[in-house]
Amino acid sequence: MTDQSRRPDHPDHLDHPGHLAAPTTADPDLVDLLTGLFADHRASRPTPTAVVDLDRALWGRLEELGLTRLTGSEASGGSGAGWVEAAALLGLAAGAAAPVPLAEHDLLGGWLLEAAGLPNDGGLRAVCRPDPSGVALNVTWARDASSIVALWEDRDEWRVADVPVGRVGLEERRNLAGEPSDTVEFDLADLEAGVVVDHAIGEQFHLRGALARCAQVVGAMERIVEITLTHANDRVQFGRPIARFQAVQHLVADIAAETALARAATDAAVARAAASDWQDGGMLFAVAVAKSCVGHSASVVVRGAHQVLGAIGTTLEHELHTLTKPILARRTEFGSLHEWDETLTALATSAGHDRLWNLMTTGRATSRRRPAE
Amino acid sequence: MTDQSRRPDHPDHLDHPGHLAAPTTADPDLVDLLTGLFADHRASRPTPTAVVDLDRALWGRLEELGLTRLTGSEASGGSGAGWVEAAALLGLAAGAAAPVPLAEHDLLGGWLLEAAGLPNDGGLRAVCRPDPSGVALNVTWARDASSIVALWEDRDEWRVADVPVGRVGLEERRNLAGEPSDTVEFDLADLEAGVVVDHAIGEQFHLRGALARCAQVVGAMERIVEITLTHANDRVQFGRPIARFQAVQHLVADIAAETALARAATDAAVARAAASDWQDGGMLFAVAVAKSCVGHSASVVVRGAHQVLGAIGTTLEHELHTLTKPILARRTEFGSLHEWDETLTALATSAGHDRLWNLMTTGRATSRRRPAE
Amino acid sequence: MDHRLVPPVATEGPALAELRLEVRAFLAEQVAAGVFVPHVDTWLTRWDRDFTRELGRRGWLGMVIPTEYGGQGRSYVERFVVTEELLVVGAPVAAHWVAERQIGPSLLRYGTEEQKQAFLPGISRGEVVFGIGMSEPDSGSDLASVRTRAERVEGGWRLTGTKVWTSGAHEADAFFALARSAPLDPAHRHDGLSQFIVDLRAPGVTIRPIISMGGDHHFNEVHLDGVFIPDDRVLGELGDGWSQVTSELGFERSGPERVLSTFQLLAAAAQAMGDARLPTDPGLGRHVARVAALHQMSFAVSTALEAHENADTAAAVVKLLGTTEEGDIADYVDTLTASGWALDDDLSQLLHAAILQRPGFTLRGGTNEVLRGVVARGLGMR
Amino acid sequence: MDHRLVPPVATEGPALAELRLEVRAFLAEQVAAGVFVPHVDTWLTRWDRDFTRELGRRGWLGMVIPTEYGGQGRSYVERFVVTEELLVVGAPVAAHWVAERQIGPSLLRYGTEEQKQAFLPGISRGEVVFGIGMSEPDSGSDLASVRTRAERVEGGWRLTGTKVWTSGAHEADAFFALARSAPLDPAHRHDGLSQFIVDLRAPGVTIRPIISMGGDHHFNEVHLDGVFIPDDRVLGELGDGWSQVTSELGFERSGPERVLSTFQLLAAAAQAMGDARLPTDPGLGRHVARVAALHQMSFAVSTALEAHENADTAAAVVKLLGTTEEGDIADYVDTLTASGWALDDDLSQLLHAAILQRPGFTLRGGTNEVLRGVVARGLGMR
Q1: Ramachandran angles phi, psi of C101, nearest 5°
Q2: Which helix (H) or strand (E) holds A211?
Q3: Domains in chain A, please, with CATH?
Q4: A254 to chain C, closest Cα gap in Å
Q5: DSSP C7
Q6: How many other CB atoms are there within 10 angstroms of residue A371's CB atom?
């Protein structure tokens, strides 16, 4: 079963059917629902704080709408949607700085449980990859979970265990964004009791996590473009809106352009994931491209937005930091930007001169069909 | 004998003598002479061409003025000046795109001959470091030299040989700037007959070459600032000089600021070299800082200048490329920018947290005097 | 989501993937046979009329021109795929570039039936070669300030003025010239401009080379000294020249040539890094990622053009990011390069050519400064 | 050479080198004794009146204040050296920063003899703590638009208005306030502004915290509700406020705090890279080089200040490049960092603090956009 099979049909706007494969945008009705939902959240939430805690009311509302387990199979109580829809949800939630563990609970934790054939009671899940000693660092939302899904590499085997939070040691910490990002210590017996899963699950976990982070970061960037534009048009300096200054126009144009690039890279990877249910051999390249572009664009967007907003944008009460801090926090998760660039370098050098373009178009360094010689 | 001892005294503009060490700027009379000389050259030279050949008339004039052997000892027929004066000469010559081998002939070739105790008849010298098989690549001005000074590493010994150009194999090539940049093949016997010199000469050669290139690049950048400003003030678009557009102002401000940074880094290294006759233990760091800053600034300056000048600046008849092409050609000589950044990384990591600042202020990773404990 | 500047990405279906491989296989054969040597910026610098005609024979020119005018009647996305394959391999495509990208679509949109019949079949066969005459010595980014004037005469117009930066004019058959057909009204600077189809062999046309900083001849100054243009060689509506030239910017600016001019250098650098002729550095990966993402963006714009959506702002984004990136690749490889220690002629020839061509990337077809203004306007800032 | 923006570099003589080592040894002892924990951006965020007083006792405050006013009567270059050493070690220097950098020099230049005697000795001992009140809610980069008004009353003035971004006002004794003492003349917006020395404990002063995005309290909003200022607390000439505040920009902008705010992070990253806790990467060397060159530039500007040369443009160059660089260091280290696999608390605390402080670097004391304009003007472009 591929994600593709679950997606509703969209009108193909091309005159030449067959040129384009599966659509890459989520169902407009779903997008409208989500947009309204998170606009409500943005309008009703309290003033920003330096520490960010789980919004249980919002989580409850998402649960009622079937959005907390959007990609879970219907058999296991999920909504059976695919990555295209999940990316839209993650992006819009991140644009509203909604403090809810959608990626952890559904795309990672729920997926691992399903992959391992473990039951899912719908209780809030955090997720992590503990080290050989059973310790996992920076486990987002761990303290709020009912249980923690651990992916653990044990003597060449990968195991998945669903461990109730009461059975783990938990040191409360927070990340740059002020979100719970705890240190979790497992009892090794709980991990050893986990279900053995295919080796591919281990690599896919890292890719899924990285791409989920991209979808969140791009969603936050898109909201930043809106905030920046509004401010530039409203703020008057030297007798006119700062949007009239060429320097400000250029800062905003660069923010918007980088956001568009990050969006393109992310959507391309999401489309590939959805079309192949992550089985496409080009997933590593596609996710690496997204993580690299999103990460480098984040530097431009975060810096430029703060520059346009000025000092007001650095205050706790302003919305801007509720977006920029999570962007930078997520950028360092599931591999540093430097690591992903190294991955791409390795892929490109192994493709070499003659296969670099094939790598770019298919994600694979070797062509499926060799040209006739 | 240090360079310092040869330099004329300058008025110290500080109220507190002893705070500043040796002056770092060349004698104003010399600077005036050079400025006038190269202004004449710029005014009288022909339209730029894609290939650049030695200007023998200019070389003759420089020779008459004692400028071709500015830093040679007076005993050997030189002018006995130091690196501060030499850097001023290199910079102003580069700002006029003067096709003369000042760095090769005097600062490198002449110095090597003197270090080896070899005679110098004043004939034009090129200089290179042939590989073990006796081949040297990208030897600038080789075809124009009367003889080529080779620094050759032979079984753990360094030798200097002064080989008449008639005795070498020479394949004519040109660098990015269109300058002669030939492949030279020596008879191994000629190299083996060279004079053995101290090991330190080998490392110093690389540093001297790199710093000479910095002085040239910065001189060219300073001329680019002038050209860019003139163009911005003169060129009218949309009914006003483009200097009135904030985007153009910012491009020019960035060009000028990066040029100033490159100048500061270069002058600091030159001052350290002059004050210690290259014996200061911080020379490697100082030259690396200059080469790194100059190299990265070159990216901003070259790009920005072409952007301000527009299409007209890309034509053969325009002065701009006579500066930008040599800047990029010199940037790759005596070590790539990447290598110099790696050198700095190695110095910084070996200094570590506690000694990084000492490295920055003294060029040495260990302090001369440990604080009392 | 209101401020999404670029259409959603699209995924190539199997038909496009097949087309890619077909073109790629042909080009690999051509390289192997020595028909051309891969190079950078070939859509400006590599001119080969035989190769262009061969592409026409294979149906890879005039792809979006309807069959009744000798074209292939295929889609913009198919043309996009063929174009990318030609660019990445560094094929000599300059001879047909302007006609294929701008002249064909303009003729289809604004030309008379007679003009279409006269030019489109030849363009589709790669036999009729066109240039573009917009810029003038005193009008760089400020196109409305063109001074070439068109004076009404019996049966047509006489054009007098000077056009610059006309690539390939010395090899081309004709060009489109923008000229002032009514006096300048300072309050409405964009009025009174018209487009004319000018035979470059006509009396009164003088073509002088503009030599580039590397010593090459790609550009020309075209002097028009009372050149007669018959009425049937006016393009579109008289006085509508401004809206005609600006309406095609989506086509001119979003193409893969705004991203891929230095792809051969990037590929050579990947090879050299793998062979340890360049130091291994994550910067390569960063550039590979950006080019891959720009390929997605540029393709997305082509789907919008296919759907007849306005893509001017999206095209400005692609050109702004793409031309910056293709130039940054040249600068990046240069920072890895040390002269004097190893000769790597292929890489250094590509690098030097890329460095020499680079300044033009972010100038031609709208400077980066102009494009940022277009994006800002698209965002509602002006 | 006509367009050299920055004075020639200078080389430290032995006396300065000795001073450096003396300060450095003291600071190393303080760190070893746990008196302070090295941090980033400490000239804004680390407030320690005891430490400040200790610096005063050692003669490292009021260095350029003449001895007759309780200062040290030393040189700007000596002060520069002490300042650098304090910054690079990440010492808690916020309590005396504003007084030492701006208030002292301004009082020396514009203050009455009585004002100098009243404030300078306390500043030099580190006992009198000052803030600055320039910005207002509606005047960011556009300082001439300040609305705080000074009304003439018997024996002095009454100030009414709101100042924002006053760092440390909640801990400070007094601040300089820029206010409009004559009605705005739109044709001469810079006229009619005056500077007042305001006791922050005076009736009518209300101080409210502005909490930063990291949750810290460094900045304040200072409300002045008819605060009485006696005539002898007007600073300099009435109506000359604009020229007074702008004339000190060379002092405010060229200091090493515009380069070194994140030095502790750079040093920690060098250590981590050496220990293989971060990947080895040439970007570190690039940043080291830039900081080293900026140290040279900043020192060069201090020699010009010492020689009473105008250094406004040079200072703008240092601040433009320096604040960009100190922020880029934060971003650079962040790109090397992966969360979730190793805890490195020292490095990550410095990194997070640097990320949270970074947006202010290129805003406070003149935005980069304003500074580029200053540089352009210095080049004769406006």
Answers
A1: -80, -45
A2: helix A199-234
A3: 1-100+198-368 (1.20.140.10)
A4: 7
A5: P
A6: 14
Phi, psi of C277 (to 5 degrees): -85, -15
Asked if A326 is an interface residue toward chain D (Cβ–Cβ < 8 A), one would say no
Which residues have C-beta within 8 Å of that of residue A46, sequence separation ≥ 6?
none
Hey, is C128 helix, strand or coil? coil
pLDDT at A126: 98
Question: Number of Cβ pairs closer than 8 Å across B and C?
Answer: 115
Two tokens at D50? 């005891």
Positive or negative torsion for Cα A54, A66, A204, A90: negative
The per-residue pLDDT for range D5-43, each reduced to its tens digit, is 888 999 899 999 999 999 999 999 999 999 999 999 999
Please say whether the beta carbons of A145 and A110 come within 8 A.
no
| CA–CA dist D207, D209 (Å, integer) | 7
Residue D231's CB is within 10 A of a number of other CB atoms, namely 11
3-state secondary structure of A275: helix
Mean pLDDT of D322-340: 95
Task: Say which residue the tokens 């500066």 belong to.
Answer: B323
Within 333-362 of B, beta carbons closer than 8 Å to D belong to 338, 340-354, 356-357, 359-361
Shortest CB distance from B257 goes to which of D78, D266, D321?
A: D321
Helical axes B56-64 vs B28-44, angle rounded to 10°:
160
Helix (H, G, I), strand (E, B) or coil at C169: coil
Residue C246, pLDDT score: 84
Contact assessment for residue B276 and residue D16, using Cβ atoms and an 8 Å cutoff:
no
pLDDT for the residue D173: 95
Tokens of C58: 């294979």
pTM over cut 0.90:
yes
Q: Which of D97, D94, D101, D88 is nearest to D31 (CA)?
A: D88
Q: Would you say A269 and A287 are in contact if contact means Cβ atoms under 8 Å apart?
A: yes
> Residue C171, class by beta-carbon neighbours within 10 Å (0-12 exposed, 13-18 middle, 19+ buried)?
middle
The answer to whether B360 and B353 have CB atoms below 8 angstroms apart is: no
Q: What is the pLDDT of residue C313?
A: 92
Q: In degrees rounded to 5, what are phi and psi of residue C285?
A: -60, -40
Name the DSSP class of B110: I
Which tokens in the block code for residue D262?
């994140």
Q: Do D268 and B353 touch (CB under 8 A)?
A: yes
d(CA C34, CA D380): 55
pLDDT digits (tens, 9 = 90+) for D214-229: 999 999 999 999 999 9
